[in-house]
Amino acid sequence: MRKQIVAGNWKMNSDLEAGKKLTSEIVNMVKDEVKNEAKVIIIPPAILLSSVGQLIGSSDKIALGAQNCHQATSGAYTGEISTGMIQSCGGEYVIIGHSERRAYFHEDDALLAEKVKTVITAGLHPIFCCGETLEERESGNQEAVVGSQVKKALFELSKEEIQKVVIAYEPVWAIGTGKTASAEQAQEIHAFIRKQVAEQYDAEVADGISILYGGSVKPANAKEIFAQPDVDGGLIGGASLKSRDFTDIIKSF
Ligand code: PGA
């Protein structure tokens, strides 16, 4: 059985005090209320990794992740953070290729392939994001776009390496817009991604990879989306900033 995952991407929100409060609330609510096996990943801004990591402590249930990292392991890259820094704070996951990084920081497929490789080499798990824009969906190109993103960033990996990856399908038109892909739309692309992985590697590898859906997931729609056979959880933005909503989403399996 592949892992069910709910990851909360705080983006550039919160500060030290608010981040500590939010983490403590999530840790307590998850402990008291969540009975399922889903893995929870908290992904705060880089500057809060250490504090949030300390509050999570060593837990099988809740893990820490970063929103981005540099492709080099160290060096003269002012303002950047490395996989080693993330690890030293207790981080186990790194989001790579979020559409906001692609759009605002011009991260392209070749760079993302490098970052994915760096993250895996460090012993961490990339949460690799892919997804089409509204224009691309309206012209019926969603599979071509997502297929190409996945192929270019992931398909140079070995069979061992690809198994470390979590994939997140995040249609750009659904992120932060309140518009969610329908459960059917999510299932369709998730099944397509899994088929691509099966064709490149094999069915067993494809079957073991967790594919998360992201884009305006809320307590009200999580259950239906998570119930799809190829949806293994969610990458949550806005709703991960509210402990009540985030916990209710985790309970949706
Ligand atoms: P959202 O963001 O849940 O606020 O739409 C999702 C994401 O960008 O990961």
Count, helices: 12
Largest pleated sheet: 8 strands, parallel, barrel
- The helix-and-strand class reads alpha/beta
Helix content: 40-55%
Strand content: 15-25%
Strand segment count: 8
Radius of gyration over alpha carbons? 17 Å
Q: Low-confidence parts, pLDDT < 50 over ≥5 residues?
A: none
C-alpha end-to-end distance: 14 Å
**For the residues shown, what is the average pLDDT?**
97
Strand order of the largest sheet: 1-2-3-4-5-6-7-8
| Backbone shape | globular
Which ligands are bound? 2-phosphoglycolic acid
| Run of helices and strands | EHEHEHEHHEHHHEHHEHEH
Write a short abstract of this structure.
The protein has 253 residues and is of the alpha/beta class. 45% of the residues lie in helices and 15% in strands. The protein has an eight-stranded parallel barrel with strand order 1-2-3-4-5-6-7-8, surrounded by six helices.
